[in-house]
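2024-03-11 09:14:02 INFO worker-7 job=invfold-0412 stage=load source=structure_tokens
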């Protein structure tokens, strides 16, 4: 996939981060700091002392005591939002209305309706908005999707995608708080939905699903779904907060298959893809990269070059609709807000 490139003399994009969430402090903010076209200018947190400790690696980054301070800083051009799911829409829209471009963590919103309001705010304020599915920028995923689109394994008939990890003992984790729009589908199952949509190039025409909810009013601790893409093409996806850490993707065509053992978070390791065709198994390795850095560099390039991000908002809206359809099929009352 061709990435937009910034001229060497283009000034870097100045980023602000809203909240001191772990994903921001430990993954995305270091990626911004290391990027060729961005500056980690400021972080807004309700606990500035805690934020200062987390961001000790970047002593020039300003630490603000509120989220609004980030939006009031006229030097900041782009905002990264790793807030709990229930706050994505509110602060994304505020940031867009303040004239900031926004990279918002996945899933973009709690519902499709919320996501549409966010998209409309981006369009009304002529700002860029992108959902932060960093795994789509990893070379192993780009290579795989290129092979699929080129027909190298024939017509895809089945996609199996799983993502799970065990947080049963972490009762205070925001991922299992219904008021924060948690749940296994929202947190990790959304990756499997996104991957199926990317492979088939369209949303499913129907879904059938089940979720496991431990108590009334709680979030889904596990999800299993069949996505029907029509013409005998399916996606089988699952997510869980009750199983050991595992993730995998298998894409099966009528002439071969592609398997990715660690498709979503291959941090600090090389990427590996196995392609099977005509009875022959071929292994393709990819050098270790920071997919978060590739993501933020792409977004900054788009800001400077006036281009739309490669991760389209129409795709995001379709994926949000699929997430809602899964909950509806499973009979899960969502959102619980």
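2024-03-11 09:14:09 INFO worker-7 stage=emit residues=337
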């Amino acid at each position: 996939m061709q990435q937009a490139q910034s001229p060497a003399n283009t000034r870097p994009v100045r980023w602000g981060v809203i909240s001191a969430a772990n994903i921001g402090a430990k993954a995305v903010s270091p990626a911004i700091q290391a990027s060729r076209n961005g500056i980690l200018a400021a972080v807004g947190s309700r606990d500035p002392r805690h934020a200062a400790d987390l961001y000790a690696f970047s002593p020039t980054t300003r630490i603000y005591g509120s989220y609004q301070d980030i939006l009031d800083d006229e030097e900041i051009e782009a905002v990264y939002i790793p807030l709990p799911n229930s706050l994505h829409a509110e602060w994304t829209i505020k940031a867009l209305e303040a004239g900031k471009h926004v990279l918002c963590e996945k899933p973009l919103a709690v519902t499709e309706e919320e996501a549409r309001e966010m998209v409309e705010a981006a369009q009304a304020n002529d700002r860029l908005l992108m959902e932060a599915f960093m795994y789509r920028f990893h070379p192993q995923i780009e290579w795989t999707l290129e092979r699929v689109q080129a027909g190298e394994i024939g017509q895809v008939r089945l996609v199996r995608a799983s993502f799970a990890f065990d947080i049963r003992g972490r009762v205070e984790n925001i991922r299992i708080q219904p008021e924060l729009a948690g749940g296994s589908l929202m947190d990790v199952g959304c990756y499997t939905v996104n991957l199926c949509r990317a492979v088939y190039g369209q949303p499913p025409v129907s879904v059938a699903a089940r979720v496991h909810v431990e108590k009334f009013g709680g979030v889904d601790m596990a999800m299993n779904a069949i996505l029907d893409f029509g013409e005998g093409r399916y996606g089988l996806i699952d997510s869980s907060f009750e199983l050991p850490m595992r993730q995998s993707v298998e894409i099966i065509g009528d002439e071969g298959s592609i398997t990715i053992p660690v498709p979503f978070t291959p941090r600090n390791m090389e990427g590996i893809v196995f392609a099977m065709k005509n009875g022959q198994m071929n292994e393709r390795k990819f050098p270790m990269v920071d997919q978060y850095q590739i993501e933020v560099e792409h977004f900054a390039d788009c800001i400077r070059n006036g281009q739309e991000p490669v991760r389209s908002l129409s795709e995001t809206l379709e994926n949000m609709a699929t997430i809602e359809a899964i909950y509806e099929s499973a009979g899960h009352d969502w959102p619980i807000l």
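2024-03-11 09:14:09 INFO worker-7 stage=report msg="Residues 13-133 form a domain with the Rossmann fold fold (CATH 3.40.50.720)."
2024-03-11 09:14:10 INFO worker-7 job finished
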